[in-house]
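Provenance and format

Records in this collection were gathered into a single text stream. Each protein contributes a sequence line and a token line. The two records reproduced below are adjacent in the stream.
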Amino acid sequence: MESDPINYDAIVVGLGAVGSATLHQLALRGARVLGIDRFEPPHAFGSSAGETRITRKAIGEGDMYVPLALRSYDLFRELEREAGEPLLKVTGGLWISSPGRQAETHVANFFDNTLAAARKFGIGHEMLPPAEIRRRFPQFAVRDNEAGYYEPDAGYLRPEACIRAQLAAARRHGAEIRFNSPVRSLEDLPAARTIILTVGSWVRDFVPAETAKLFTVTRQVLYWFEVTGAPERFMHPNFPVWIWELQDVKHVIYGFPSLDGRTVKIATEQYSRTTNPDPVEPRLPVSDAEIRAMHAQLVAPYLPALGPRCAKAVSCLYTATPDFHFVIDRHPARDDVILVSPCSGHGFKHSAAVGESVAELALIGRSSLDLGNFSLKRFGTARS
């Protein structure tokens, strides 16, 4: 990138979920700000695609996330009003687990942590025994030892629409945006008081080797399987967003209400096979073997009314830390660079509040919400 004589208050590198939100919040505060992305977001090459992302208020990954989630609800509603289009749909959310579960959602005791967070923060919820799950949501083939946590205010966000709305709002408030502009090195950037790295799975390219080792990148696949029988069974308000910690296999599966009455989006997570973000083309296709295995092993036994025909399957990237918590901190080698990696498969729901908090951190040196739990110090790699 050519040298630019213009000085910026901040440059945001990477304009996905958090980068677009940060750019918007900086511009909203009157900052002289530049946003840069190697592609033209929203796009399918990173971590913020796939039509829907679950949002929830009681966060099983830890109490420190609940203020971010609650603030994000408010900010997404504000963004909806500004954009004039729906971005957040409340459908209710059902989390299913059991003492026999073989998998955990991101962290140990996710289900119990969720319940504890709901009680601590006064978040509306119900506990459903298996008989009640079968009565209200017969689509799930639950067992007698399984239980459900139901959160009426949970739902989904539309990731591509959210990113478009954040970028459009940033432009209206004066942000400069450059698409299709890869950044190879921080030294190539124009002069700025602060550089904010929200580069997703490319984070390892911009940090020292010791820090880069903290981030693992994995390919995830999202599937849309056919609905057999009456389509309304899998549509809102008859079907919620959901997360299921299974006991037969070491998998968590999750999914969404049908948006079209024909297919239901369902996915799992895997962290054993790592990948690289570049080049993008080899990791995008989803094989027929992957589709058949997903349906046979993780769909048919648990949601028997979803047929084997897969209308669509797409891949995306997860960037995870060893403890599955975010990293939001100063760059280990440069105090003028803020490293922002709200990752590990549970970041999108928090992106609006993270963007606001990082904008505050960049402009006034502190954020309204506590970001202390996301420091690199917990790994011993922070700047000394």
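Adjacent record:
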Amino acid sequence: MDLRGLVPVAVLLVGWEAVSRSGLTDPRIVPPLEGLLGLLRVEVAQQSLLANLAASVVRDLTGFAIGASIGVAGGVLLGLSPLASVLLRPSFDVFRQIALFAWIPLIAMWFGIGEASKIVFVALAAFTPTLINTVEGTRSASLRLVEVGTLLRYRRWQMLHAIYLPAALPSILTGVHLALIQSWLATIGAEYFMTAGPGIGTLIIEGRDRFQMGQTVLGMILIGVVGFLLNRIARAAEHWLLRWRVA
């Protein structure tokens, strides 16, 4: 890892500490870093921070798994079936123009404001990028390979396994990577707008309502750290799964 990438973070931390210690702002609004570290120790000792973090991560991964799986399956169907593409693609193109957060009132009406509605919302966020990239990937298969498979009388599942999926894998993984990022953002959004239950979003809202900006800032830092780690994990997994392309 290039340590130069940490320079902006270090500058931000130094600037934050300077502002909080300068007396120009209320420390309740811009808390010093020492206060944030103390709050972190307290939250960890009380296990409330870990409980909120675990709830958000489990919620995120569950919704992501559901949405990405449906997206890949739907993408293969739309990519390989002309009939399905004619019947379903126009509706999907309209569907994906609707802003993600515009679905919250409808989801809340159908599923309430509990865990189910949050997972549905996260799954919806993961579904769209996965499906789009899977469609593009399956359609990128070499026509020559498809002709060879036809001459060898491959069955449909053999064509899918031997030709279409290998050709689509890079695009599918790109979609899954994007879906993982979108899912984490959607998780925090769902917790912010549907506040029932634990989660990092709930932690932030509680800090705002109690005018404890340290708690809010701590939650924001956790969102960034978890998002960074998820992105790194997705990138490493993508590189590992595509290692055969550069071998």
